Description:
487 residues, alpha/beta, Udp-n-acetylmuramoylalanyl-d-glutamate--2,6- Diaminopimelate Ligase, Chain: A, domain 1, UDP-N-acetylmuramoyl-L-alanine:D-glutamate ligase, Protein-Tyrosine Phosphatase, Chain A, 3 domains, six-stranded mixed beta sheet, 16 helices, 23% strand, globular
Amino acid sequence: MKLQKLILNSGYQCIDGDAMAEIGNISIDSRKVVPGDLYVCISGTKVDGHAFALNAVENGAAALAVERLIPDIDVPQVLFRDCRDGLARMAAAWYGNVAERMSIVGITGTNGKTTATYLLKKILEEAGHKVGLMGTIATIIGDEELPQSLTTPDPMEFHGALARMAQAGCTRVVMEVSAHALALRKMSGVVFDVAVFTNFTQDHLDDFKTMENYRAAKKLLFTDGMARSAVINADDATGRIMMNGFGGPALTYGIAQDCELKATNVQVAPGGISFHMVYQDTVTPVTLGLTARFNVYNALSAAGAALRLGVSPGVIARGLAKVTSMNGRMERVDTGLDFTTIVDYAHSPDSLENCLRAARPLADGHRVIVVFGCGGDRDRTKRSVMGRIAAQLSDYFVITSDNPRTEQPESIIDMIEAGVEGFDTPYARIADRAEAIKYALHKAQSGDIVLVAGKGHETYQDVMGVKKHFDDREKILEETRLMKAQV
């Protein structure tokens, strides 16, 4: 693509050099530049891409995108006020601005994004649409499922996936939109048909430092013309902040507060949930094969988005009824033993609390045992909080390793354990996650619930920068097979 065409609507300030230079690709890593690439100089928190511009040119870069002109470099330079914003808009142009021709729903919030996207996908498919999905677990294009490394992919990957979805005949796209993606302007230029807000609780303070900064990043999805309409959780106090100043129509949902889309007669059972969905004086019975009260909210958020896209309540109910499980989200692992084992992605204080509260009625008077840890190189302030929650809401807990990354597991466990002080709930600390799971399973008695939290769908453990295969479900099944053989 000619450089001039690539930058046409990207908000650049000026170009120094040949606007007709031929561009073969767009790169943000100088080490991966090949002849013909446009190298984008991203100013990061730790590394400034401008420092590697000469390396990129030596590797064959045909042009540079910069926030300040670099002297003595003999290739065209496009000057941007913000290269991250420019990158997102150029990525869209590179793939033919396909987002403008698709109906896209973006779902943001601390918890529930993944489940809500899968529920909405099922609803839209029930309505007859071919649907693409992007999120924490995978990118799904029709029937093809691709692994995903980030909740919201970088601009080139994102717009490339949209283009593939369009080629596959997808007319609707549902995606998770992380606070990081919004803060880093990954979605600049994209206008969502519907923006959905699930909830807001503590997470990611290692990056955002304060809850106010984290909230402001989420709020970006509901400002600056990024969405034509909104669906907001009225039971979450932050929902009012998300709605403040939003210029388009907004539909509110909830259980407790007055709202347009409401769940009544909520019933939670081990095999799933049921409720009456009330919308515009129409009452529609809904059943869903996922347990836990928080999944009522996830179902409502998906239903609200579907309503904004013109799907009828009856079709919404039929779509939700077809969902029987979610990968790593309050997922039962069938062990054949007389206690229940559940795997969940819960890795924040609020999500751990929600899972433990959901597990309590399922235990029906028996014990709730939880295995959990905290990720390394991430928000340290939540570690003691999660320890306190486990001590308050479980009958026995095992503190273990999650993804320690470059930290020592024992040091992370020490910080979690600080929150346990003052409680008499029995617990163990076992840094080896496989051994911790084994220990909890052997502690379980008939009727108990064993919740293994923190990794959910993940099939690896990140230790000192190396991702080693590790799947909580596999470890549970391996150990319970041995337990049954010994009976």
